Amino acid sequence: MNLKFYIDIIKHRKSLKSTINAILNKLFFLCRLPFTANYPTNLIIEPTNFCNLKCPLCPVGTNSLKRKKETMDYEKYKSLINQLEQYLISIELTNYGEPFIHPHILDMISYAKKYNIFVTIESNGFLFKRGSTFIKDFIKSGVDHIKLALDGIDQKTLTKYRIGSNYNEFMDGLRYLLEERNRMRQKLPIVELQFIVMKHNRHQLVLITDLAKTLKIDKLTIKSLGINFLIEDDDDYSIIEQFLSLDSKISRYYKDDNGIIHLKGRIKNQCRWLHSSAVILANGDVVPCCYDATGEFVMGNAFMEPFLKIWTGAKYRKFRHIVYHKRHIIKMCRICSEGRGNLSYCEEYHK
């Protein structure tokens, strides 16, 4: 999240407590302290870890998540928001799984908006399968921002990676969303298209930009491919190399003389997330980062104990201490671009 976007969200929140809290988490980060006296300003909340697609580099799509498939309990979600609503600036309804599969996803959005929390949600286009009435209700929910994954501008290119997707259905739904938002004279949600650059779709970079301009999309983000949990698994290289382009301009990675793929940049003993954000998995487990797909570093369960007890507890303090002194020993940190420069995004277009 860039500085301008962060400042805009603080302005949107208009809460003294949440603003002071945001300043505190920045101070604790700068001081690299393992303990904290603040609450997180942002949560990634995983509504479900079910997905309708079979993306070949995703642990959900390949059935390698190693976690029980489940959907977050709505009442427990509300309890979590109730604990943190005075301090949260934003939530992101995403992680591993398709959020719009959750039967109460609109209620989850509306409940957060009740407390003026900035809500971002992501989708692979399953939103558009829910029908026109649902799309209208989605706009009315007050959601602030939606990120839509579109990695190709024809059926063949899109489904090379997004296996199970339907290009025409996606585009019809996208046009309807934009038309309805305009008809209702709403500025929100901000509609963002995300295009992940891979070997098979890189020839469409100019075309996706033209499409975004034609449709008057609010934002187009062209992202480099992240191979996350597979990066250090030798037996997965054949799958990775089907999709990963090592073009120096659009890749986070490089290949050494022995053919081993590495993330660019030097790993640093720092992480902005540790004092500002946390991830809540569908079962309530709290993990420090979205790179922890399997729930290896569970700090506690927010549905079984107060979140603040977890956030300030011994496990979190120990984890922060390791990151600030020996981050390289943690695998998920070795595959993360945090602190290595701008590896994740190649280009952004704004309307």
Keywords:
12 strands; globular; 13 helices
Provide a concise account of the structure shown.
The chain is 35% helix and 15% strand.
Describe what this molecule looks like in 3D.
By secondary structure, this protein is an alpha/beta fold. The protein has 13 helices and 12 strands. It has helices at residues 3-13, 16-31, 74-84, 105-113, 132-140, 155-161, 167-183, 205-215, 237-243, 273-276, 307-311, 314-326, 331-334, and strands at residues 42-45, 90-93, 118-123, 145-149, 190-197, 219-224, 253-255, 261-263, 277-280, 285-287, 300-301, 345-350. It has a 10-stranded mixed β-sheet. Strand 5 (190-197), helix 8 (205-215) and strand 6 form a beta-alpha-beta unit. The protein is globular and about 50 Å long. It starts with a helix and ends with a strand. The relative contact order is 0.14. The model has no long low-confidence stretch (mean pLDDT 89).
Question: How do the SSEs run, as a string of H and E?
Answer: HHEHEHEHEHHEHEHEEHEEEHHHE
Determine the number of helices (DSSP H or I, runs of at least 4 residues): 13
Number of strands: 12
User: Spans of 5+ residues with little confidence (pLDDT < 50)?
Assistant: none
Radius of gyration: 20 Å
What distance separates the N and C termini? 18 Å
Helix content: 25-40%
Mean pLDDT: 89
The biggest beta sheet reads: 10 strands, mixed
Shape, principal axes of CA atoms = globular
Q: Order of strands across the biggest sheet?
A: 11-10-9-1-2-3-4-5-6-12
Topology, pairings included?
Blueprint: H1 3-13, H2 16-31, E1 42-45, H3 74-84, E2 90-93, H4 105-113, E3 118-123, H5 132-140, E4 145-149, H6 155-161, H7 167-183, E5 190-197, H8 205-215, E6 219-224, H9 237-243, E7 253-255, E8 261-263, H10 273-276, E9 277-280, E10 285-287, E11 300-301, H11 307-311, H12 314-326, H13 331-334, E12 345-350
Parallel strand pairs: 1-2, 1-9, 2-3, 3-4, 4-5, 5-6
Antiparallel strand pairs: 6-12, 7-8, 9-10, 10-11
Helix pairs in contact: 3-4, 5-7
